[in-house]
Specification:
It contains ten helices and seven strands. With 255 residues, the chain is an alpha/beta fold. It has one domain: Rossmann fold.
Length: 255
Amino acid sequence: MTTAAVAGTTQRAPGLPGQTVVIIGGSAGIGLETARQARAEGAEVVLTGRDPERLRHAGLEVGARSSAAFDAADPAALERFFRALDDPVDHVMVSAGGMYYEPIASMDFTQARRALDEHLWLTLQVAREAPARVRPGGTLLFMTGTVARHAGAGLAIASAVAGALPAVTADLALELAPIRVNLIAAGFVDTPLSAALLGDQLEARRDELRATLPIGRVVGPADVAALAIHLMTNTALTGATYDIDGGQQLISAAT
């Protein structure tokens, strides 16, 4: 058998041919990387984001079928977006919104409520609006963090969200079947949002993780995006939470 023949027999077919993936929060970071990988798997993508200019650049980069600039935490705007979709879609991923970290004594309750809107309430709103547009067997895919697994000052809002969403996901998987519903719980991911939060402490955090994580490197957007694509393509998976943290919880548990 020739080398060309061997290469031909081992080439993998795209996993999402002819499918459409909607990414809410798709103009940067994990959302944009998921769009890139979905396109590589043969899917068309529809992107949303709050910043029109950044969204325009993201749409051009990945060759998005369409894009829509709006605040996903605005229920009326989210409803209009789903109702305006011309054709059925196969997968909806929500990666929008940052989290709020602040001790209770200095907590800004307006920002805290915003964080709840961008995660817990957005999840429920998408679960209500999206099913009318998602084909049976398609996916609703949400994101949270692993922060609820340990206590710490300033983590109350983030922990509340991360603790609630696994139960919400399991309930929605039953309620919305045959649409599948899954949740990704990420540890530290090296994204522009992480850089903005950590500022001049970013490189020290990267060095710490490289030295301590079992995988010996920092988790990046491509790692999370690969998991997201797997959850879209594996039709046996629903109602579960999938951790991706490079083994960070194992280190925390051992110390």
